[in-house]
Design a protein that fits this description.
It is a single chain. By secondary structure, the protein is an alpha/beta fold. The protein has one domain (about 1-224): Spore Coat Polysaccharide Biosynthesis Protein SpsA, Chain A (Alpha-Beta Complex), CATH 3.90.550. The protein is built from 7 helices and 12 strands. The chain has helices at about 30-45, 55-65, 85-90, 115-125, 165-170, 185-190, 210-224, and strands at about 1-10, 25, 30, 50-55, 75-80, 100-105, 130-135, 140-145, 145-150, 155-160, 160-165, 195-200. Strands 1, 4, 5, 6, 7, 10, 11 and 12 form an 8-stranded mixed sheet that branches. It is globular, with a radius of gyration of 18 Å. The protein starts with a strand and ends with a helix.
């Protein structure tokens, strides 16, 4: 099956305390989003890349591509009011059914090639796959009566890319939006499908704060 990745990049940069949207902030020589695109191209240089951005950011992205001589082929799509609608807009650019569709956060440039490979392989055989990692710290549940420890082995931290066979994802996104649709897996799961977990990589953080930028830059220097 052919591969496509929908990279959703709708950040505003508020937690970064920056006027620049976080996906455009530079780390190790390039904007974050460019590192993310490069990673999927390294996985498979024939992969179709769809970048979903807010309408107000598309002009800036195209300028950055010119400034950085960023010539990786991709389509740019206008995002929606929520992640659900942004992914739906990205899906509208996929013609045909013979695709494996990955949905990935634009500010996760540290996803490993092995994680991407595992997700596509499992989705090809089982319909879907999402990466997850163990929780390394203690956890407590909070309710009206106070708080209590919980068994962290019964929980996982979920990452992207979340990969699906195209027909499955397209059918799921025909549904009306609901607030509990926090990621793409939750949309598919609402139709009664079992979600398959594969191993993620702990470096695959979602860059949202200034300290995340420092971690990401340090890691990129090590792997280059």
């Amino acid at each position: 099956m052919k591969k496509v990745v929908i990279i959703v990049a709708g950040g505003r940069g508020k937690r970064m305390k920056s006027d620049t949207p976080k996906q455009f902030l530079p780390i190790y020589g390039f904007p974050i989003l460019m590192h993310t695109v490069k990673k999927f191209h390294r996985h498979d240089n024939s992969i179709k890349i769809i970048i979903v951005l807010p309408k107000t950011q598309i002009k800036l992205w195209k300028k950055l591509c010119r400034d950085y001589k960023f010539n990786y082929e991709h389509d740019t799509v206008q995002g929606g009011i929520t992640r659900f609608y942004s992914v739906k807009n990205g899906l509208s650019k996929i013609k045909g059914k013979d695709w494996l569709v990955a949905v990935h956060d634009g500010v996760r440039p540290l996803v490993s090639l092995d994680t991407i490979k595992r997700c596509f392989k499992k989705a090809a055989s089982s319909g879907n796959a999402i990466p997850a990692i163990e929780i390394p710290e203690s956890m407590r549940a909070i309710d009206k009566s106070g708080n209590r420890p919980v068994d962290r082995s019964k929980f996982k931290l979920i990452q992207t890319p979340q990969v699906f066979q195209c027909m499955l994802l397209q059918e799921a996104f025909k549904q009306d939006y609901r607030p509990e649709f926090t990621d793409d897996a939750s949309v598919v799961e609402s139709l009664g499908h079992t979600i398959n977990l594969v191993d993620g990589n702990k470096e695959n953080i979602k860059i949202t704060t200034p300290s995340d930028l420092l971690v990401a830059e340090s890691y990129l220097k090590k792997i280059k």
